[in-house]
Specification:
Molybdopterin biosynthesis moea protein, domain 2, Molybdenum Cofactor Biosythetic Enzyme, Chain A, MoeA_linker/N_sf, six-stranded mixed beta sheet, single chain, 20% helix, Molybdopterin biosynthesis moeA protein, domain 3, molybdenum, 4 domains
Length: 401
Amino acid sequence: MADLQPIETALDALLEGVKPLESERATLNEAAGRVLAEDVLATCNVPPFDNSAMDGYALCAADAGKWLPVSQRIAAGNSVQPLESGTCARIFTGGEIPPGADCVVMQERVDTDGERALIPADIPEGDNVRRKGRDVRQGDRLLVAGERLEAAALGHLAGQGITHVSVRRRPRVALLSTGDEIVEPGTPLKPGQLYNSNRPMLKRQLENFGAEVVRVISVPDDFAQTLALLTQAAAEADVVVSTGGVSVGEEDHVKAALEAIGQLDMWKLAIRPGKPLALGRLPRADGSQARFVGLPGNPVSGFVGAWLFLRPLMGALLRCPTLAALPALAATAEFATSTGPRQHYMRVALRFTPTGVTASAFADQNSGVLSSCIKADALAVIPPYHEVAQGDVINCLWLTS
């Protein structure tokens, strides 16, 4: 096991020299889920004027505690007039606070006789007023480059009247499935065959990580065809991902093909699951290179490998800090285990309690048991040659894209 490389060394090799992809303009609808390529500055205040936080009456706080004539009615979107001295204004949520008013009293606290309102005495200045620029001030940095544009960020941009933004181009990924025994769902199984569970799983993971899967390719157990299909994939994609074919079997041709036409940076990692994982580069005709990630064929190894390697690679290509590393948290183990020479990434379910976080490991951690990944919240990281007893504090990587 001395030749096994730690994950940190593998990640360094994978990310060495990676440069962010170019930017492109997109509408807000097209930008959903994309990564912002440049900072955005606020062009207007939010809210753009002082407005009422509720339905009620706007007045000068100094006039509270007496009957005040109602001099105007202000609904959201109405223009306003300066408030006459010694009066109040009927106002509705979102209505602009008129000059001369400095507070709003909610309507439930007010008695009226149709033309006047009896205002309680304990109304402080600024009560129930949403101040101009409370959320955003003109000229402030609204969003920073590297932000993923999810719901709230899109609303923030729309609140500025912005229609287009600069986003990183999605990484183009070619997804290869190797092995004559792998067939697509819907095809009757013959003896010795398996359905391709890796393809839809990895495609969804990659999309969640911000990538665009541009090609899916089935690779037969043949060296010449493996060579040709790797070359084709590299010409079309920024990243080539394969499943299977990177071990030492006579029908495992991917590693040999990679070494024949490209560069093998790392092979055989000190991790479990996922030891036979190949990282490298494939040449293109223009002299550039496509990154290569060869995941093991076992589905759990592919699932875990995608979180540990594909996610940070997409983060580097998109220059997105939230994709660069999985969030880590400490949890109390509700299981016992021990490791050998490889670092173990165990699928666990998290439970958040008043006294802290607990982690329960799924009983069967075999790399072929994909069901353990469905309800997994995190990967518990157990170092090599380590013993964990129930109640020990362990480090977990939270599975969130």
